[in-house]
Amino acid sequence: MSKIKLFEPYKIKNVELKNRIVMAPMCMYSCHDEDGKVNDWHLTHYTSRAVGQVGLIILEATSVTPQGRISPQDLGIWDDDHVEGLAKLVNLMKSHGSAAGIQLGHAGRKAVIDGEIIAPSAIPFNDEMKTPKEMTKEEINETITAFQKGAERAKKAGFDIIELHGAHGYLINQFLSPLTNKRNDEYGGSAENRYRFLQEIIDAVKEVWDGPLFVRVSARDYHPDGLDAENYVQMAKTMKDQGVDLIDVSTGAVVPARIPVFPGYQVKPAEMIKHGADIPTGAVGLITSAIQAEEILQNDRSDLIFLARELLRDPYWPRTAAKELGADITPPKQYERGWI
Length: 340
Ligand SMILES: Cc1cc2nc3c(=O)[nH]c(=O)nc-3n(C[C@H](O)[C@H](O)[C@H](O)COP(=O)(O)O)c2cc1C
Prior knowledge:
This protein has 340 residues and is of the alpha/beta class. It is built from ten helices and 13 strands. Strands 3-4-6-9-10-11-12-13 form an eight-stranded parallel β-barrel, surrounded by seven helices. A two-stranded antiparallel sheet has the order 1-2. A two-stranded parallel ribbon has the order 7-8. The two termini are 22 Å apart. Bound molecules: flavin mononucleotide.
């Protein structure tokens, strides 16, 4: 019988994951003081998945500016004061053997906050949401610097991996898609110009961060005039040249659209990008069973398996998966008597 891949370690640069199971970023909207700081909820929630033997835990979209929050309750990394709480959380996750990642984000026109919001073009997401202000070049540069500062703070907090949130219709995605970017300057128009904002963020982050860098993309806009996986294969080639280590492949949410959802519905674009750009990928989206995860890995369709909602239901999913596949995984010492 061939080796079970889901529980094979995976090395990226200096970081070794003990298995291929990744907790996908999930906003908890739990900073009730609206200060972006880690609190008891975050310490409990993320540490539980580390106890559950998840290989890599990626923290929820963490905003690089107050204006870039999806909600006032988002985690933040725009201030040096955020580092202490994040470092405490990183230590807890690592002490249980998980690698620690953080998703750096900016909501752009999808920010639901008081005051002005910004985007590449002054087009609202829908009738209920605010119309954003078109970003000036100065604001573009300030935002790139905010991503760089966020990466510096993530490094100080001890994170192993940084993921840039380029998906789900948030700011970076708004620059990439022709549906949301109608600019006439060097940040809009051609594919090369629409990629420039992300390109400059990657370069800025890499000046201060030499650890593994992931980018999450929405590889399908689900719109006839939008982007599709083939466009992202091209972008992924450039990302690879820039030193990005893995593309976390999601889809949708840049404009309101109907998304056909079924088990593994985003695996195909993850496979296309992996082989088309020759870069490691993570597959995500309605992956719920171990046999499904194992199929994706054994057929070389992605390198890592990202789980979101299944890990909300079952923080010990790695144990569930090991049982399903007949694999042995080491429990936390304290749980040995109950792990069988
Ligand atoms: C509660 C919740 C919060 C989420 N927040 C984020 C987020 O902060 N960043 C992100 O890229 N995706 C976010 N997502 C999307 C998930 O990471 C994942 O891509 C999606 O849920 C599909 O995977 P699943 O079928 O395993 O849940 C969120 C999903 C849920 C359910």
